[in-house]
């Protein structure tokens, strides 16, 4: 038996960035590892530019999520103006940039998932920089605003973390679903017709469980400052009550 921290992830809008190709910013169907590490970092007050602290979070914890309601896909379109070829010129402010000649308009799109609901299980690895209790305290009283993906996606429910012992992450998620939810969460579950669906975790953490499929996701943080991410092998397991 090992200790696991479980919590509920819900937001009216959520977005879990995948590969950014051209002017389109898509979203994965479930929380990415980078998004969950960012959630921890925001709660703990870890600076995004602090490479050592970010690396410690990335290496120190395991994550598993279960989809309870996948949400509906929503695409938002943006326009942005910027100068053409800049050469060696650098702009000190956005105002200077907009005053440049020959501004061009770029159309971009961003995908979101509306009313997405997930369960989270988190556990420490050998090099974990914080105890589960310290993380639970931070999730209850976060240093920065917590979001489900992008900064424009604040949480719609308190995380209400709990620490309990289980033989595996799958068992922790199973127990989380069967624990009596708080009234706001119970109402959201009913409204979204929530049901325990697919479980996503690192393939190395799946143990003897046979995955429905394996996905290669580029969401393992390598450098937050340079915004670089490595591939991760994720096992998708069948859910169920």
What portion of the residues fall into strands of 2 or more residues?
35-45%
CATH class: Alpha Beta
What Rg, in angstroms, do the CA atoms define?
A: 19 Å
| Helical amount | 10-25%
Oligomer state equals: single chain
Shape: globular
Mean pLDDT over the residues:
87
CATH architecture: 2-Layer Sandwich
Q: Which structural category do the helix and sheet elements fall into?
A: alpha+beta
Order of helices and strands: EEEHHEEHEHEHHEEE
Query: Domains counted in the coordinates: how many?
Result: 1
Walkthrough of the structure:
It contains 6 helices and 10 strands. Helix content is 23%, strand content 39%. It has one domain (2-75, 111-237): Alpha-Beta Plaits (2-Layer Sandwich), CATH 3.30.70. Strands 1, 2, 3, 4, 5, 6, 7, 8, 9 and 10 form a 10-stranded mixed sheet that branches. The model has no long low-confidence stretch (mean pLDDT 87). The chain has helices spanning 33-44, 51-60, 94-98, 132-140, 169-178, 183-192; strands at 2-14, 17-21, 24-27, 61-69, 72-83, 103-124, 162-166, 199-202, 213-223, 228-237. It is globular. Strand 2 and strand 3 (24-27) form a beta hairpin. With 241 residues, it is of the alpha+beta class.
């Amino acid at each position: 038996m090992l200790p696991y921290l479980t919590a509920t992830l819900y937001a009216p809008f959520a977005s879990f960035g995948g590969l950014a190709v051209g002017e389109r910013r898509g979203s994965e169907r479930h929380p990415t590892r980078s998004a969950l590490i960012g959630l921890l970092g925001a709660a703990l007050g870890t600076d995004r530019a602090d490479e050592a602290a970010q690396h410690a979070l990335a290496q120190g914890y395991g994550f598993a999520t279960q989809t309870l309601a996948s949400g509906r896909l929503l695409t938002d379109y943006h326009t942005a103006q910027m100068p053409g070829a800049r050469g060696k010129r650098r702009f000190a402010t956005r105002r200077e940039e907009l005053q440049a000649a020959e501004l061009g308009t770029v159309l971009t799109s961003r995908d979101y998932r509306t009313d997405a609901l997930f369960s989270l299980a988190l556990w420490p690895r050998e090099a974990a920089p914080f105890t589960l209790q310290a993380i639970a305290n931070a999730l209850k009283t976060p240093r920065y605003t917590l979001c489900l993906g992008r900064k424009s996606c604040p949480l719609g429910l308190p995380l209400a973390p709990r620490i309990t012992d289980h033989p595996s992450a799958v068992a922790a998620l199973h127990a989380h679903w069967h624990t009596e939810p708080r009234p706001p969460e119970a109402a959201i579950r009913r409204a979204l017709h929530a049901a325990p669906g697919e479980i996503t975790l690192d393939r190395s953490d799946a143990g003897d469980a046979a995955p429905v499929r394996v996905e290669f996701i580029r969401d393992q943080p390598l450098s937050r400052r340079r915004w670089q991410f490595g591939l991760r092998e994720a096992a998708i397991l069948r859910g169920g009550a």
